[in-house]
């Protein structure tokens, strides 16, 4: 008996118009919109999702976009025909974070709260994604995966909608932002605000804040393999600062720092009792990076222990890399194996 091969269609990017979104710390996003990305088999479209196609939700990190795969995607080497995340086998969906710069509602856009300081949380970013899933008619998610801030949002999603997510893969992240993370973000925020063009026209402030962040995202052994102590590293940092200035704004950058700082699933969600983490039902593959200096392996160990204490199925894995926190955007062979392992977790 011959079996017809299932072909992947081309990836699609689009904008969703969503209901108004009240924010956890006050304010409301009106005329809410979300930039979205989709890659699936032929015939499975955002306008008409086919039943029976498993959904994999990917959540990007601090300055990423909805484009997870395809040329220039932040997980491009993992996504595509024959790869760990094959759009002929699973439906791949990603949303640009609320408050980011790539098409979703954000500071300076119509509908963003005015006349007051807006402080986003990881819960706000997760609620925006849930509205996007609702708009697409995607009631169940086979796997939600993301690293760093994306991992925080993955955990928040599973706490907000525990029956919706069958498996989760939080990478290089934590159940609650540590003093170390918040401290680095405080310094970055101070740099942003020193720029005379802050918040919507900051230039040098955003570049230097990015340079500071790059040093926390990497580890000394990885930097030493590419840059000498006296030359190279400065050019590397200036390059990354300039790149971010060309594609982001200080106001959007600060909104994502806020979401990271105000991530705490050890506290109850509004209207509930007990830690938000206890609401998660999905089995988890909790992944750390052995050289991560920002989201340390100890934080992943604590996250896994907390989930187990609440009776959840947890597996642990470590990305071994000289490159530090950003290994979840660099170590493709290890990541491919881990994604496939996460897809094989027994569902909730």
Can you identify the CATH superfamily of the largest domain?
A: Alpha/Beta hydrolase fold, catalytic domain
| Secondary-structure arrangement, i.e. CATH architecture of the largest domain | 3-Layer(aba) Sandwich
The number of domains is: 2
Mean pLDDT: 95
Helix-and-strand structural type: alpha/beta
Shape: globular
Helix content: 25-40%
In DSSP terms, counting alpha (H) and pi (I) runs of 4 or more, how many helices? Answer: 9
For the largest beta-sheet, the strand count, sense and barrel status come to: 8 strands, mixed
Quaternary status: single chain
Query: Could you give the order of strands across the largest sheet?
Result: 1-4-6-5-7-8-9-10
Rg over C-alpha atoms, rounded to the nearest angstrom:
19 Å
Low-confidence stretches: none
How would you summarize what this structure contains?
The chain is an alpha/beta fold and 348 residues long. The protein has two domains: 12-175 and 264-343, Rossmann fold, CATH 3.40.50.1820; 181-259, Orthogonal Bundle (Rna Polymerase Sigma Factor, Chain: A), CATH 1.10.1740.110. It contains nine helices and ten strands.
């Amino acid at each position: 008996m011959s079996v017809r091969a299932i072909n992947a269609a081309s990836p699609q990017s689009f904008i969703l118009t969503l209901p108004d979104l009240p924010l956890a710390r006050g304010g409301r996003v009106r005329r809410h919109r979300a930039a979205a990305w989709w890659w699936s088999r032929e015939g499975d479209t955002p306008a008409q999702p086919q039943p029976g196609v498993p959904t994999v939700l990917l959540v990007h990190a601090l300055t990423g976009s909805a484009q997870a795969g395809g040329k220039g995607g932040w997980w491009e080497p993992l996504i595509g025909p024959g790869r760990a995340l094959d759009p002929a086998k699973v439906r791949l969906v990603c949303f640009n974070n609320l408050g980011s710069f790539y098409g979703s509602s954000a500071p300076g856009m119509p509908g963003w709260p005015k006349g007051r300081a807006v402080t986003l949380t990881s819960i706000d970013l997760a609620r925006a994604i849930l509205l996007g899933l609702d708009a697409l008619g995607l009631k169940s998610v086979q796997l939600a995966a993301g690293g760093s801030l994306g991992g925080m949002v993955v955990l928040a999603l599973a706490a907000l909608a525990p029956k919706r997510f069958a498996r989760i893969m939080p990478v290089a992240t934590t159940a609650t932002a540590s003093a170390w993370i918040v401290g680095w973000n405080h310094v970055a925020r101070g740099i942003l605000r020193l720029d005379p063009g802050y918040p919507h026209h900051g230039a040098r402030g955003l570049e230097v804040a990015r340079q500071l962040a790059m040093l926390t995202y990497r580890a000394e052994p990885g930097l030493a393999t590419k840059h000498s102590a006296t030359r190279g590293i400065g050019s590397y940092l200036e390059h990354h600062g300039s790149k971010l200035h060309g594609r982001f704004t200080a106001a959007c950058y600060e909104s994502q720092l806020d979401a990271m700082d105000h991530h705490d699933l050890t506290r109850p969600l509004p209207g509930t009792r007990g830690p938000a983490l206890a609401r998660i039902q999905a089995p988890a593959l909790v992944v750390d990076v052995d050289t991560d200096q920002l989201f340390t392996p100890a934080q992943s160990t604590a996250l896994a222990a907390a989930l187990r204490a609440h009776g959840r199925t947890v597996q642990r894995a470590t990305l071994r890399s000289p490159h530090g926190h950003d290994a979840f955007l660099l170590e493709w062979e290890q990541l491919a194996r881990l994604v496939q392992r996460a897809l094989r977790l027994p569902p909730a």
